[in-house]
Amino acid sequence: MPRTKGDHEARRRDVSEAVWRVLAAHGFGGLTMRAVAAELGATTGLLTHYFRTKRDLVAYALDLLERRTAARPRRTAGPGVSAVRAALLDILPLTDEATDSNRVWVSSWDTALADPELGADHARKYARSRDKLRDLIAEAQRLGELSPGDPARIAAGAQAFVLGLVVQALLDAPAFPPHRQVELLDDHLAALVPTPGG
Amino acid sequence: MPRTKGDHEARRRDVSEAVWRVLAAHGFGGLTMRAVAAELGATTGLLTHYFRTKRDLVAYALDLLERRTAARPRRTAGPGVSAVRAALLDILPLTDEATDSNRVWVSSWDTALADPELGADHARKYARSRDKLRDLIAEAQRLGELSPGDPARIAAGAQAFVLGLVVQALLDAPAFPPHRQVELLDDHLAALVPTPGG
């Protein structure tokens, strides 16, 4: 029976799923042609139709991570400090899906630090994410909901805080259950809010 | 000429140095018997006298990371908020040596997340580090230099902030030079200090 375009698309989705499951379980350190083939129940020979080299597989995995992150559902929130809070909550590993995704992001840092090209690409991604946060913070300041101060600097601080909280929560889930993560985030935000009469 | 105990110790130090240089350049993802042997200018055969398996090599590298971290020079500071600030500054990649060490720590997270035993060990290490920070914070509160509040919670927030700042600074060194890192840390600490008349 001849293969149809539908078969091809379905197989591509299966390959993506298999790559994702390997990443979520073993990180980039465990991402090999053999592991993806095993997850897919296929031969490594078949995999070479999709990825000629290990580097192709890593590049595909990083792209998949970015697409999955871009496509994830996001909280909606009004403008001001609620929008800043929603954007930061969207990053935290508060659900199983967000935990998998963050586990892959943390793993990608090692990969990025080992490769100048990937490192530069990661630096650009995080800079874009800080810029978005800066704009939300500037808007909250205009509304009088956040204290004045350089919004880029406040964004860099908030991004650092949230990335570090991701690391802690992944390494020690029992000590950082979702409600604890939210509590710590709210502490960070509370410090940015004008004190009454201050 | 017979090998002396001194030769053996010197060779062990050479092996440690070679493992460290491979880790600092390539992370745990690039830590192989072959890479260490090449760095040492030796055969992989020689390496198997030191590490029987790849897992032995990884365990050795994690132990080396911990010993190097414990042995690094630390800032001295009086009690109170100065001691909290010094402990947090000690973590940041403000020197080449601290940058190498942090690069290896970030890489170790992927390794730890892929292995439940190593993961539990990492969780204990970070919990101990939070406990030390909590005690310094409690002392600063007793001196009236930090606002009241659960010191364990403030310590968890400060640790998250510093770990995330490490990640940012490693991925984008030009955007996070040492003076910028210190500025952001001081913003975080300023939010914990009682406001005059507050």
TrEMBL record, chains A, B:
DNA-binding region: 32-51
Superkingdom assignment: Bacteria
One MF term in the entry's GO annotations: transcription cis-regulatory region binding
UniProt keyword Transcription, yes or no: yes
HTH tetR-type domain ranges (all copies): 9-69
Keywords: DNA-binding, Repressor, Transcription, Transcription regulation
InterPro entries, per the entry: BetI_C, DNA-bd_HTH_TetR-type_CS, Homeodomain-like_sf, HTH-type_TetR-like_transc_reg, HTH_TetR, Tet_transcr_reg_TetR-rel_C_sf
Classification via Pfam families: TetR_C_6, TetR_N
PANTHER family registered for this protein in UniProt: HTH-TYPE TRANSCRIPTIONAL REGULATOR RUTR, TETR-FAMILY TRANSCRIPTIONAL REGULATOR
Stated name of the protein: TetR family transcriptional regulator
Species of origin: Streptomyces alboniger
